[in-house]
């Protein structure tokens, strides 16, 4: 309780000193204590005078270690008297419990550098329900016969059966070892492109209408698997067992555009929230995430270019 009181006083003091400035930058969350996976809104505001040159801070995928940016808005501009106020809203979250210091966010106004005040975010685990009584210990039950008991009773039959299997396998090996057969001709079938496979799976998922029948988690689990399979087949790296951050780190130098990376991150993080944090997306979000998957495959599919024949003799 003393730690939470001290943190609240410290954060309040930092916000007061930040708001007292006329020209500068401030960053304020809508709350400082969250549960694991819970999203909060962080508002970043820059105040500058008319004709000031403002260089906005660049915020990519996190604001601090273990504090991720889920999504963010574009900068919004509003005129207040002789000043301009630029505002950006970010959705942030964390998947590890503890207290995390959010460092100052810098911005350059003219030739001066301003920075927001740092603040803390506390991430708590889900509290255990201690209201339910502890269940009674079950009574002792009769131990049924084990496989060892059956083996002791019938081991001779098992030995004869095993010997028969060994002799049959040995005879089959000797027969095939000395039997000469022509080697079969293996036809190499062309590999199906990754986007063709992905489109087929997406259409099948859409036809199942899982989320419309209240199977939201299964819908997002399948959509995540389809997307990861496509990324693995398209960019030739193991993506099925990797986390969202590991996938995005691998794709940082790929030919994907920043917008495509942002859409992919948003898609994977939403499916993670549904699978692990029991998030319940709206119907519009369920429809949009499928459209995002379709568009991502369409925009990033690998086009096979047939070599052109030179007509000059």
What does this structure look like?
The chain is α+β, with helices and mostly antiparallel strands. The protein folds into two domains: about 1-125, Immunoglobulins (Immunoglobulin-like, Sandwich), CATH 2.60.40.10; about 195-300, no CATH class. The protein is built from seven helices and twelve strands. The chain has helices at about 1-20, 145-180, 195-210, 215-235, 245-250, 260-275, 285-300, and strands at about 25-30, 35, 40-50, 55, 60-65, 65-70, 75-80, 85-95, 100, 105-110, 110-115, 120-125. Strands 1, 3, 5, 6, 7 and 8 form a six-stranded antiparallel sheet that branches. A three-stranded mixed sheet has the order 2-12-9, covered by helices on one side. A three-stranded antiparallel sheet has the order 4-10-11, with no helix packed on it. Strand 10 and strand 11 form a beta hairpin. Helix 3 runs antiparallel to helix 4 and helix 6 packs across helix 7. The longest helix is centred in the middle third of the chain and has 32 residues, at about 145-180.
């Amino acid at each position: 309780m003393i730690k939470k009181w001290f943190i609240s006083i410290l954060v309040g003091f930092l916000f007061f000193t930040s708001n007292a400035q006329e020209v500068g930058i401030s960053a304020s969350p809508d709350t400082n204590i969250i549960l694991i996976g819970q999203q909060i809104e962080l508002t970043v505001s820059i105040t500058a005078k008319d004709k000031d040159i403002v260089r906005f801070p660049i915020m990519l995928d996190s604001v601090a270690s273990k504090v991720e940016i889920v999504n963010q808005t574009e900068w919004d501009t509003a005129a207040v008297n002789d000043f301009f106020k630029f505002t950006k809203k970010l959705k942030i979250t964390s998947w590890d419990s503890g207290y995390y210091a959010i460092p100052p966010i810098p911005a350059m106004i003219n030739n001066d550098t301003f920075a927001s005040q740092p603040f803390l975010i506390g991430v708590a685990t889900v509290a255990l329900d201690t209201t339910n009584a502890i269940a009674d210990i079950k009574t002792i039950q009769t131990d049924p016969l084990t496989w060892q008991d059956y083996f002791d009773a019938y081991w001779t039959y098992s030995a004869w059966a095993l010997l028969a299997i060994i002799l049959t396998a040995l005879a089959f090996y000797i027969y095939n070892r000395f039997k000469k057969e022509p080697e079969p001709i293996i036809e190499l079938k062309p590999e199906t492109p990754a986007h063709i496979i992905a489109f087929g799976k997406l259409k099948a998922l859409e036809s199942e209408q899982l989320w419309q029948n209240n199977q939201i988690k299964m819908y997002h689990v399948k959509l995540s698997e389809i997307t990861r399979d496509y990324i693995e087949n398209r960019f030739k790296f193991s993506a099925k067992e990797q986390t969202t951050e590991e996938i995005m780190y691998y794709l940082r130098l790929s030919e994907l555009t920043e917008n495509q990376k942002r859409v992919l991150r948003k898609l994977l993080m939403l499916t993670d929230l549904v699978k692990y944090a029991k998030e319940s997306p709206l119907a519009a979000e369920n429809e949009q995430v499928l459209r995002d998957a379709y568009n991502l495959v369409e925009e990033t599919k690998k086009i096979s270019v047939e070599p052109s024949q030179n007509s000059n003799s």
